Amino acid sequence: MTTNNNLTTSWGAPVGDNQNSMTAGSRGPTLIQDVHLLEKLAHFNRERVPERVVHAKGAGAHGYFEVTNDLTKYTKADFLSEVGKRTPMFIRFSTVAGELGSADTVRDPRGFAVKFYTEEGNYDLVGNNTPIFFIRDAIKFPDFIHTQKRDPKTHLKNPTAVWDFWSLSPESLHQVTYLMGDRGIPATLRHMNGYGSHTFKWTNKDGDGVWVKYHFIADQGVKNMDVNLAAKLAGENPDYHTEDLFNAIENGDFPSWTLKVQIMPLEDANTYRFDPFDVTKIWSHKDYPLIEVGKMVLNKNPENYFAEVEQATFSPGTLVPGIDVSPDKMLQGRLFAYHDAHRYRVGANHQALPINRPRNEVKNYQRDGQMRFDNNGGGSVYYEPNSFGGPAEVPEHKQAAFPVTGIAESVAYDHNDHYTQPGDLYRLMSEEERTRLVDNIVAAMKPVELEEIKLRQIQHFYKADPEYGTRIAEGLGLKVPQEVK
Ligand code: HDE
């Protein structure tokens, strides 16, 4: 076949004219038989896939992960099996609430979604830049996100809804305190940590398990952005973080993170002072110190934003042998939500797209579906069990058995101390940090329409730390309600 630079239709035929539609005479009308025009307009109409319902605005990069510490006594995960082992990876950073075109420098958690292309399949670690979350049961997520998105009548952000929900969901206080503090607006995507947030389970070759939490510590250090600069940049350069990441990588200034883990023996989960699967809590670093695992380096920008960043699909359910989930109720809900979102947003065969497909060979009996663009298993055997040497299961990678107990019912976590950890976080802050935190909260709560909501929220701040609650009340020109004192 000869190679040339011919413009072609999507079916490969040379295009004769890409500047002038075919018309009856120079004044038209336009002829419907200009099939190239029809195809071009029709394809254009379909250029957008639905944006992610949360985490719509994002930036991605390629890189690698290198093991620096031998943790094989805890996990048989192949990509962690040897010091020095390198695994290619892709990361997508994102804001949560804004739309695809929204500003980068807003106060919001940042998504920190990592895809490791391991030799035993893809492993996705779909975390945030905060170690905790606003709620701890998946059933509350759609309501929570409604309050973060636009009001259905005004199509504006609605602070009354935000604080109404938070004040009625006191488990959010820890994450609210974190978000309203300095870390709520990172200086750049390179200057923030990432967290797996949930508890996961690691299992070693002997089938012994431990609970694990992930921390990606930014080697660049953590730096945050002043609120006034953030507001200015949101107007002047809404893509500031996206641009910063792209330029850093383009200029060879490769950002990196050190991955560390906290390890908890399985039995400790039964006796720890709170439920360690509750994603609104952090584990004390004194009880479970950070242990180094390896280094993640971002060294290559995507070639094509849509193909690589927009079409990337991450799920906390994309796991490899040696890494399993925990009973965390949020994590359990996410195991359904993500691939469901991908099937809706990208399509039934989203796993086979170049950015998503594993680097090892996929061999299974799944066939067909919309946009099946690989060879669909060719003529190979398409059912199991079979007598034709089709791919067979690997018994040693059967999930380690685990005990389950209890009565099935819709029930809350039984630990309801929503105040100690947010209070500790407040007390950890310097006076300047506390002042900025209080100023941010007061500014955010001022527009709340009902005083009742403000008073309810003030009580939560007060219960975390009397000074915290009192300062917010004063800032809002209100008094701490008597019943909480
Ligand atoms: Fe997500 N989340 N989430 N989330 N999330 C999505 O997945 C969801 C949660 C996170 O760059 C969606 O493909 C539910 C916690 C990141 O592509 C959706 C619950 C954490 C990203 C979804 C949570 C996250 C998402 C939107 C409560 C941090 C972006 C479209 C049970 C630990 C990934 C999509 C990317 C994206 C659902 C809570 C992080 C709808 C139901 C907790 C980083 O499926």
TrEMBL record:
Residues 1-27 are annotated as: Disordered. It comes from Cytobacillus praedii. Residues 1-24 have a biased composition (Polar residues). One of its GO terms (biological process) is response to hydrogen peroxide. Residues 8-392 form the Catalase core domain. One of its GO terms (cellular component) is cytoplasm. PROSITE patterns: CATALASE_1, CATALASE_2, CATALASE_3. Its cofactor is heme. The keyword Isomerase does not apply. It is an enzyme of class 1 (oxidoreductase). PANTHER family: CATALASE. Transmembrane segments: none annotated. It catalyses: 2 H2O2 = O2 + 2 H2O. This is Catalase. Belongs to the catalase family. Its EC number is 1.11.1.6. Heme binds at residue 338.
